[in-house]
Amino acid sequence: MALRNIREEGDSILLKKSRQVTDFNKRLHTLLDDMRETLLSADGVGLAAPQVGVLRRAIVVIDTNKEELPVEEQMIELINPEIIESDGEQTGQEGCLSVPGVYGIVTRPEHVIVRAQDRLGNFFEVEGTGLTARCFCHEIDHLDGHLFTERAERILTQEELEAQQENGQ
Ligand code: ZN
After folding, report:
1. CATH H-level, domain 12-166: superfamily
2. Cα 159 to middle of ligand 1, angstroms
3. Edge-to-edge order in the sheet of strand 111-117
């Protein structure tokens, strides 16, 4: 496994649409292993392949609703993910490893069901609520070349961020 460089806003690869994964081979498995390691090392909750410079429809999400499990087991790999059901609404703060230091207020569904394939190509469905639903939506957006800053109703000011830090948030 190896850490990969996280591409940052301004890199045109983040604005491109990723292609479907068709080969569930060793190359994909190495990509996923590297994405898991890179995500943990960056202390994030989700990572999409284009963020490490690979335009393929693969994401890794940490299911924070399963905090009792070891972190390795909280990680969900989703290949060719598609949101097949969504309901409710949540409005809250969102950030991105590719847009460091920037946070915005984004409205997302409160609950989603995602259909995807695992690293062997088997189809499965997974449910997400709260932060995990937000994360699925955010990472799938990356596969279509969208950043959260496009969706944010507003970006938090420096003063607001400093106030949060002082409150230990
Ligand atoms: Zn992101």
Report:
1. Peptide deformylase (3.90.45.10)
2. 23
3. 46-48, 58-62, 75-87, 111-117, 123-129
Q: Residue 159 catalytic?
A: no
Buried b (16+ CB within 10 A) or exposed e, 68-86: eeeeeebbbbbbbbebeeb
Q: What would the DSSP string read from start to end of 119-157?
A: TTS-EEEEEEETHHHHHHHHHHHHHTT--HHHH-SEEPP
pLDDT tens digits along 66-97: 888 888 889 999 999 999 999 999 999 999 99
**Which residue in this structure is represented by tokens 């106030």?**
163
Radius of gyration from C-alpha coordinates of the chain? 16
Please give the Cα distance from 41 to 49 (Å, whole number).
16
Residue 150 CA to residue 61 CA, distance in Å, equals 21
What's the CA-to-centroid distance between 138 and ligand 1, angstroms?
6
The pLDDT, as a whole number, for residue 169 is 61
- Choosing from 68, 72, 139, 153, which is the catalytic residue? 139
